[in-house]
Amino acid sequence: MRHILYALLSCSLLLASSPVRAQQPAAAPATYARSLTQAELEGGRLCAAAHGQAAQRPATASVTHRAKMERYDVKYYKLDLALENTSLNVSGSVWMRVRVGSQALDSLAFELYQAPTGSGANVATLRIDSVVVNGRRSPGVRRAGPDATASLAQPAAANSLVDARIYYHGTAPSGNSAAIGNGLSNRSSVNIDTYNGAPTFPYNVTWSLSEPFSAHEWFPCKQVLTDKADSSDVWVTTTLPNKVASNGVLVRTVPVAGNKVRYEWKSRHPIAYYLISVAVAPYQEYVNYANPAGGPRIPIVNYVYNQTYLDYWKTRIDLTPGFIENFSSLAGLYPFADEKYGHANAPLFGGMEHQTMTTQDGFSFTLTAHELFHQWFGDNVTCASWEDIWLNEGFASYGEYLALQAFDTPANARGWMNEAHRLALLNSGSVYVADTTSVNRIFDYSLSYKKGAGVVHMLRYLLNDDTKFFRALRTFQNQFRGSTARTADLQAIFEAEAGRPLGYFFEQWFRGRGYPAFEVRWNQGGSNVVLRVDETVSQPTFTPFFETDVDYRLTFTNGTTQTVRLRQGQASETFQLAVNGTVASVAVDPDQWLLDRSVTPLRDNTLLATRAGAGLLPLTLFPNPCREELWLAALPAFSVRAEALDATGRVVLRQAIGTTQPQVDTRLLAPGLYYLRLLSTGGELVGHGRFVRE
């Protein structure tokens, strides 16, 4: 991954106008045409770069212990720790303020790593020195693996606030249990890619990465997604010249005896346990600013290795303000505008969206965009269950595409989407995560990232209106600000924008498996074009049919084109279109909206012949023009389905009719000219005609 990452740096960015871009960044990079590198196509893969290293493991807390933790609500964390950039040793305290639930509390349950029973004396573990609750020392702390329970000297009343300070020390484990590495990691930041001119940075970095289950590997906590702390403070004491990057605002730095310094960070926004972070190294600071419309000037605090590193990456780092301004115009103001955004460098071969301070290895275009868009999707609004991780990773991946649309060429944005579709279709599984104990499955690159992004793209297509689409994103952000959400919550918002139920869409694309393919045959007779579309699916046992609109682009012999959007309401559909000109070819989904594997449509010269013989009925329609009802004469003796198509070829009405009910209800149709066709139960065209709705 590092070879790919650093290979892209010689490429500048080509800026292009786009309807979804709000404004130009304050400082635009140099521009010239080029193609996307593989790393830019796969910025999200850098986010998920080391997922393959993660072991399959259960969520840390036992069911019984989690039930104990659910008896209170976390309000506040304060970490006051001693850390160095040269080891995984950690010591200090964590202050947890919690609100007791409806029943009195006689013990406080939390999570903290403990080496397995029988481990040697030198094995990494975290030891609890004492627990003080409401000023009184706990009479006893029981531990069973990561489950810790401190008895209270005096029970806490229902609905009361409890302040608990947990004093501990030890060495954080090293076992690749987080999504990328460990809860706390330490390694050399030397860049091994010296062959391509990249500079080296020969000192160590200690950094945290807690997603999904590894916060307890470096501080006592409650690892429950739906229980965000209302606020947090992170204090870290370290040896100079180290600096400490963390969440929120740096309140002050305090000199400490022994050539040390304490960094005091505070955040007053709700935060999920896994987004609390630290990074410790002798960093150099570089600050730039974003100026989103209607918002304050936002500092972007970058903790980089040194001046050589900054010189190497500065052009890419300076894209961040424009990204913030653009995303703010699309999804709502940057959620933490009153605090900051920033980056802390660590050699993690990817990135992690720690709230207001992303930990990142390098600054590829799409990696920076991906981690930044997480501040909206993942940090401000966090998935309420790992089953719904696509709400984090799918949307962050789509942020890469939005950034390319706004700041790059249409060809490169299209190339990204084409590659995203290719990767998504490599896995026939579901976006929904059934096994939330598997880190590898939660962060499956093809499903959670790329297929998730594809689902977001199809929601945009479904609404067919960017105003509605981005309004839905802003509504989602506002409605669940500082909280968590499920897929059903997002569905309700999109249903409100669409004005109709979308359960079928989410059943197909979120819970369903596989993808459709559309085999299209077509022919032209005079001013009429017939399309015969047969849908097949890759996983018929799980998702037997995908109901969807599909775009078809007709290219005429004179070089002009016409795109029509048609509804695939059943496995086999026949569409008849009125055209002006001779069609040379037909393309399925030419703008890559759908996750599908469709083959090139073929002209079938027999198609019209089989429809235009004795079985094809010219319909007598009356009254014509009509208002409320359209009557049909000379119906066939068998059951048929009537479909009305508007001038674009879109099916706008479907109704079963027969000799006992020879009329079509046209009250819901807008005034205009329509094409009416009768289809047999097998989808064959058996009659057609035109009518006008007044």
Q: What would your notes on this structure say?
A:
This protein is of the alpha+beta class and 694 residues long. The protein has 4 domains: 2-52 and 382-511, Neutral Protease, domain 2 (Orthogonal Bundle), CATH 1.10.390; 57-314 and 326-331 and 339-359, Immunoglobulin-like, CATH 2.60.40.1730; 514-605, Aminopeptidase N, middle-beta domain (Immunoglobulin-like, Sandwich); 613-694, Immunoglobulin-like, CATH 2.60.40.3080. Helices cover 22% and strands 34% of the residues. The chain contains 15 helices and 37 strands. The strands form 9 sheets. It has an 8-stranded mixed sheet with strand order 5-4-8-2-1-11-14-13, with no helix packed on it. A 5-stranded mixed sheet has the order 16-17-18-20-19. β6 and β7 (147-156) form a beta hairpin.
Number of domains: 4
DSSP strand tally: 37
Rg, Å, rounded: 30 Å
Physical arrangement of strands within the biggest beta sheet: 5-4-8-2-1-11-14-13
Q: pLDDT below 50 for ≥5 consecutive residues: which ranges?
A: 1-34, 50-58, 609-615
Q: Which bin fits the share of residues in helices?
A: 10-25%
Strand content: 25-35%
For the report, how would you describe the main beta sheet? 8 strands, mixed
CATH superfamily of the largest domain: tricorn interacting facor f3 domain
CATH topology of the largest domain, by name, is: Immunoglobulin-like
Domain Peptidase M1 membrane alanine aminopeptidase: 365-509
GO molecular function, one term: peptide binding
Pfam families: Peptidase_M1
InterPro entries: Aminopeptidase_N-like_N_sf, Peptidase_M1, Peptidase_M1_aminopeptidases, Peptidase_M1_dom, Peptidase_M4/M1_CTD_sf
